[in-house]
Each structure stands twice: as C-alpha cells, then as structure tokens.
C-alpha cells in the first residue's frame, strides 16, 4: 500500500484521550509506522489529561483544538455584567432546549467542529490530504469530517467505536432522541466507507445505511507489554488480587455478581482483594456497602495507562463487568483486549452471551458468567493456584492472545484505505 496523507479527525486522542479511547492513538501510530503522513485534529480535554502519554513519530502531526468558546482559537468573551446582590436567573425552558439542541450530538459540536473545519481548510484541504478518517464518539468528529469532505471532495471513512444511532447506552428525552438519531442517520449516510468494532455494530450500521461495513475490532498492542512480560512480582503475594481497570457504568456495568460470590466464600474471603480504579457517582461505594464486602474491596483513583498496564500484569485476575441485558451482546469493552494482552485470567461478569463472552470462552482466557456460585467456585480454584504457585497464578499461554493484537485488527482498516486510494 502506497503512502497516503491522512487527516484523522478524533477529539479523543492522546494525551487528552479518555480512558476508553486508546484505539485512536494506536491507529494513528500504526499508520505512521507504515509510512503514511498522519495529521490529527484532536481536542484539549482537560479532564482527560494524565491517562495517556503523548505520541511522538516523525510521520505524525497532532493539532489539539479548544472545545469551549473561550479557547485560544476563539475571541475572548467580554466579562458578563452582574449585580452581586441579585442571584443569577435560571435559564428558561426554551433557552435550555436551544442550548441542548446546539450541543447535539455532544458538547464538541458548537465550537470544536467549526475550529476543526477551519483548521483543515487552513492546512490546505484537498491539496494537503488524500483521505479523511474520523473516529467517534464523540460523534461530532463525523460532522466535522462530513463538512470537510463536502468542501474538499476527499474520500471519508467513518469509524464508530460506539453506535451513534440506536445505541442502547444513550438515554435522552424522546424528542431529543429523534433529533439526535436523525442527525446521525443523515451524517453517516455521506461516508465513503464505514468501520465498526463489533460484528453486531457492523450489522446494525449496514441496516441503517445500506452500505457495506468493515469490521475492525479493537486489539492489544504488543509494545505495551514488551517490557512487562517478566513482571512476575505479584501485586499482593498473600491475597488473590482482582483488578478492574475500566469504567464502571452505574446500574449497567455492575460488579454485584463478584460481590455476591465473595459473600459466599465464608472464611475464604480473607484471601480476596478486589481493586477498582473508577466509581461513577458513588455507585460502586453503595454496592460495596450493600453486599458488606468492605474488607475485600477498595476503590482508587485513575492511574496513567502505563501504570495500569503494569498493575494488570502483576494482578492475579482481571475483572470485566458487562451489562446483563441482551443489548450488550454486540458490545465488546476495549479493556477486554488489553486484558488478553496482559495474559492474566479474566473474570467477565454480567451478560454471559454475546461477542465478549465468546472471546473469553473460545480463547480460554477465563470465565464469563453472572452466576455468583460459579464465580465463587472459580475464585477458590484461583486461590489454590496462587498458593501452589508461590503467590502468583501462572500466565496464560501466549499463542491465543496473539490472535487479538491491534496489528491484526487494523489490517482490515488498511484494506479500506488501500481500496479508497485506488478509486
């Protein structure tokens, strides 16, 4: 495949990517290492700093644009006049609705999208690039990509890491949902090619658009673990250490099955230590108290990804929580592939069907169930293995994990780009 100049539009990009958006940086680096010239239009998301490291490659240029109105790319706003003796008035319903509509599909729409379009124009548009590739969410990336594609005539690939239309995780007022999904259907229809990260999402996007959709799952990066493969020192040599390194979604990705299993262990629970690195709205704390597992479970703050990778290698078991709802069948948490790369046993709770559960079972990476009794039984087995292994459970075999590397997954994206370049 010949070298191409790719304009990559994705607000979530290192070092400002959120925890679940490691794919975007890996994809850009994959292209750069292949010899493509990659220019990224990302966003300076203050809340996402410190999780990912900044990427550096001679073929990679990263441009981070402000999200809010008062950014360095915007004219400073005049100070608002106010009477300190008079409380601020609550915006009226009409004003609030207009604000919500302006933020559709997300907060990047109002100011970041115009900046991204203007920046692409300033960089040279069709004279500077051969192809546009957008990755969302946030799905405003696709709005910017569509506008640039229409202006330049460039081919545009729309990658949806999560569905824009008919996403079971999205909850809005029915009126706003109609507008949100109508917007999504209209925008994605203009894409030259579409990429999805699960089989179920690919089928759904094919139904929505009538276009062929390429499946390019997430994967794990071999270089992430290259210096960690010999990290044999256990995180806790005495207790079976279970790590949850992803996001907890209140009432959906819920660890209650694990907590129920711990409660079934009796005296054996003294050998359990579960650590979570995220708690949405205090939901996890409520669950811990509800099941009385304070002696076995702790919650810590987010850590930089490099530190989390080391902890995953040193842990005994890696926990993946799934929503016990059929809507979860077509969802594969990105952390699953990272867990596979860490080569530690996986405990997948929640829905025991669907693509994620199939991967866990087919690769013999662990157990996928919502049955607390089965989980308790497996916990006892892992405790015995840890004790027999001198404080550490043996690594899983390397061969099954190699089937899920990012290079393997991104090969499908490479074919899409090559095909568009030949048209």
Automatic annotation (TrEMBL):
GO terms for molecular function: glycosyltransferase activity. Keywords: Glycosyltransferase, Transferase. It is an enzyme of class 2 (transferase). Its EC number is 2.4.-.-. Residues 21-213 form the Glycosyltransferase subfamily 4-like N-terminal domain. This is Glycosyltransferase. The lineage of its organism: Bacteria, Pseudomonadati, Pseudomonadota, Alphaproteobacteria, Sphingomonadales.
């Amino acid at each position: 495949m010949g070298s191409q100049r790719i304009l990559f539009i994705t607000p979530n990009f290192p070092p400002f990517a959120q925890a679940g958006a490691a794919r975007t940086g890996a994809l850009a680096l994959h292209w750069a290492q292949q010899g493509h010239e990659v220019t990224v239009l990302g966003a300076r998301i203050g809340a996402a700093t410190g999780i990912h490291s900044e990427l550096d490659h001679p073929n990679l240029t990263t441009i981070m644009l402000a999200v809010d109105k008062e950014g360095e790319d915007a004219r400073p706003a005049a100070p608002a006049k106010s009477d300190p003796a008079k409380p601020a008035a609550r915006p009226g319903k009409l004003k609030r609705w207009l604000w919500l509509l302006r933020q559709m599909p997300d907060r990047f729409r109002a100011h970041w999208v115009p900046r991204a379009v203007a920046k692409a124009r300033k960089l040279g548009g069709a004279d500077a690039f051969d192809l546009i590739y957008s990755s969302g969410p946030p799905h405003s990336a696709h709005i910017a990509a569509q506008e640039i594609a229409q202006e330049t005539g460039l081919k545009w690939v729309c990658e949806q890491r999560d569905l824009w239309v008919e996403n079971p995780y999205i909850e809005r007022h029915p009126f706003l949902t109609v507008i949100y999904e109508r917007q999504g259907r209209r925008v994605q229809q203009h894409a030259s090619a579409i990429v999805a990260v699960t089989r179920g999402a690919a089928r759904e996007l094919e139904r929505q658009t009538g276009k062929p959709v390429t499946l390019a799952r997430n994967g794990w990066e071999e270089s992430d673990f290259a210096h960690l493969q010999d990290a044999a020192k256990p995180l806790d040599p005495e207790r079976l250490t279970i790590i949850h390194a992803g996001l907890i979604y209140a009432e959906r990705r819920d660890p209650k099955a694990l907590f129920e299993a711990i409660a079934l262990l009796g005296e054996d629970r003294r050998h359990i230590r579960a650590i979570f690195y995220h708690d949405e709205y205090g939901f996890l704390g409520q669950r811990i108290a509800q099941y009385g597992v304070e002696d076995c479970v702790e919650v810590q703050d987010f850590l930089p990804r490099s530190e989390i990778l080391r902890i995953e290698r040193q842990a005994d078991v890696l926990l993946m929580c799934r929503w016990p709802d059929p809507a979860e069948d077509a969802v594969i948490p990105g952390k699953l592939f990272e867990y596979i790369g860490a080569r530690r046993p996986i405990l997948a709770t929640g829905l025991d069907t669907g693509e994620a559960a199939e991967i866990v079972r087919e690769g013999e990476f662990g157990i996928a169930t919502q049955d607390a009794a089965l989980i308790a039984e497996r916990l006892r087995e892992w405790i015995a293995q840890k004790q027999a292994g001198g404080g550490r459970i043996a690594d899983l075999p390397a061969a099954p994990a190699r089937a899920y590397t990012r290079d393997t997954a991104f090969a499908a994206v490479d074919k899409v780009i090559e095909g568009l370049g030949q048209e």
